[in-house]
Design goal:
This protein is an alpha/beta fold. It has one domain: Rossmann fold (3-Layer(aba) Sandwich), CATH 3.40.50. Helix 4 crosses helix 5 (about 110-120) and helix 4 packs parallel to helix 9. Helix content is about 55%, strand content about 10%. It is built from eleven helices and eight strands. The structure holds ligand PTJ. Ligand PTJ binds near residues 30, 103 and 199. Catalyzes the condensation of (R)-4-phosphopantoate and beta-alanine to 4'-phosphopantothenate in the CoA biosynthesis pathway. Pathway: Cofactor biosynthesis; coenzyme A biosynthesis. One of its GO terms (biological process) is coenzyme A biosynthetic process.
């Protein structure tokens, strides 16, 4: 671990960069993941590197949706594994979800490295390695999923997802929760619940909401989901970026 002074004004962003760099060095994150991180950072800077109010509401709706699901799955790629592995394991436990590795640039080496990393952080059953299911309308490598994981899921959390795959998963009838700092990205646009926030803030906040909602009954959870408006959330995020207003 390198030393980053905690009082540095860009502490969180430097820490994030360092984690992604480490991810690349350890064979977890792809080189394209570095570019994706840079893109995300620019949007986060414009958002004020904070969880805006509409994102917090989306994170609460996501928690309710995950608790309502029969078979929720949290999808993990190379950036997610480098940035929030312990937090993903914690969320999976809070909402009783499966964790599945799903890579845009799939290689056997990276699949194994990510699975080992997740297990180091307490994940017991990591899916994605069997790859006996397919997402229709995608090229071979990118279509691979586990038949009893994402293949059988009703609700899928897909952070930092590529637009094509987000769209194809939607066409399969999955309810998608997307985390993406770019409110104009296709993934955010096709999500039932788009969360425009940095994944390092979003995941722990969804878990906090889920723990707080643990005693809520089915109707209360369904009401939270129904009250969430994806278009309004995306518009609020875009306004916060364009106008720098305190959304
Ligand atoms: O590990 P793999 O092979 O599955 O590849 C993963 C990446 C992320 C490289 C791949 O899916 C990709 O190229 O994604 P894109 O098309 O660059 O999209 C990534 C999106 O995530 C962009 O819209 C970024 O703004 C956003 N993003 C980047 N970092 C963060 C983020 N959103 C939330 N939190 C972040 N830390």
């Amino acid at each position: 671990e390198i030393e980053i002074p905690e009082d540095h004004p860009r502490y969180q962003s430097l820490l994030t960069r360092h984690r992604i760099e480490e991810g690349v060095n350890r064979g977890i994150t792809s080189k394209q993941g570095l570019i994706a991180e840079g893109r995300g950072e620019a949007f986060d800077y414009l958002l004020g590197e904070r969880t805006i109010e509409s994102a917090d509401a989306a994170e609460r709706a996501a928690a309710a949706q995950l608790l309502l699901a029969d078979h929720p799955v949290l999808s993990v790629n190379g950036n997610v594994a480098a940035l929030v592995a312990p937090e993903i394991v914690d969320l999976a436990e809070a909402v009783d979800a499966d964790i599945e590795i799903n890579l845009f640039n799939r290689t056997a080496e990276r699949m194994e490295a990510i699975a080992a990393h997740l297990r180091d952080h307490g994940a017991e059953n990591v899916k994605g390695l069997t790859a006996d299911g397919r997402i229709p309308n995608l090229s071979h490598e990118r279509a691979k999923v586990d038949a009893d994981g994402i293949g059988a899921a009703d609700v899928v959390l897909v952070p930092l997802e590529d637009g094509d795959r987000a769209e194809a998963l939607g066409e399969m009838g999955k309810t998608e929760i997307v985390i993406d700092l770019n409110p104009l990205s296709r993934s955010a646009q096709v999500a039932a619940i788009p969360i425009v926030d940095n994944i390092i803030r979003a995941i722990p906040n969804i878990t906090d909401h889920a723990r707080e909602l643990r005693t809520a009954d089915h109707d209360q959870l369904a009401e939270i989901v129904a009250a969430f408006d994806p278009e309004a959330a995306l518009a609020a995020a875009e306004a916060a970026i364009r106008e720098g207003e305190l959304a």
